[in-house]
Amino acid sequence: xxxxxxxxxxxxxxxxxVSELTQLKAYVLRYWQTEFSQLKPPKNRAGNRTxxxxxxxxxxxxxDLLYNKKYTIxxxxxxxxxKESVLEEAQKTKSFNEKQQVIFRxxxxxxxxxxxxxxx
Length: 120
Known about the structure:
Layout: H1 15-22, H2 26-35, H3 53-68, H4 73-81, H5 83-93, H6 98-119
Helix pairs in contact: 3-4
């Protein structure tokens, strides 16, 4: 995920500027604000959303998860909140015992045999 650097560095950006920077429609940004609790841009006195660089980075992270990595909104929400990384770590460290490996090899051989019969 590349970090977007605006032409003019500012402290706060309007929703239109963020929309242009991230190449997302404004209604998508407003919708994501309702779905992701981490994305809460403050509003100015006029009631307009004011995005900071950290908000833009969060939007780009969400965009990457949804559009490139094909996560669902629930999945992206769990990744951002940190729950997904704990599950992935547990699955990576989990190894199969010898009995399970024998069963997996048998299933693999059976599936290969079925595939050979189908393709002939």
